[in-house]
């Protein structure tokens, strides 16, 4: 199989690679019932040493920067209560945590969740967190620009491997809220 974007030596339909995915991601792919068949989710095997976006794009080509997205876990605090959410933005932008995220969560303060919280609550590896397979009760804030990209490269739940999925899938994930301006230019 050839990946719809990029040039990867090993690209396969994600349902054929469930053993390469962490349990919550594999289960989400197995149970997927959205408008795009799960067979259109593509798993590409990649080197975990180059999983971080800047290094990955340097190795696999600068055109992937505009076709890649990052998923980060944020913590919103209000009145002594902390709630977790995930945010998905294109890799060339950063999450507007103190603006769009704070307002959307109704939080007095919002920040990136600590690494041990992000990995412990998702069951995913740091540097590979993906919106596919997150806890269903979490809000999933998705920048509108991500949904508009025909195919998006995103983490697979592990540092090894990535998923390529049609952008419109992100609007169909559990808890998804599509927002304009969630991703702001990186400084």
Automatic annotation (TrEMBL):
Please, which domain of life does this record's source organism belong to? Bacteria
- YbaK/aminoacyl-tRNA synthetase-associated domain location is 52-168
- A GO term, aspect molecular function: aminoacyl-tRNA deacylase activity
- Under what name is this protein listed? YbaK/aminoacyl-tRNA synthetase-associated domain-containing protein
Q: Which organism is it from?
A: Streptomyces boluensis
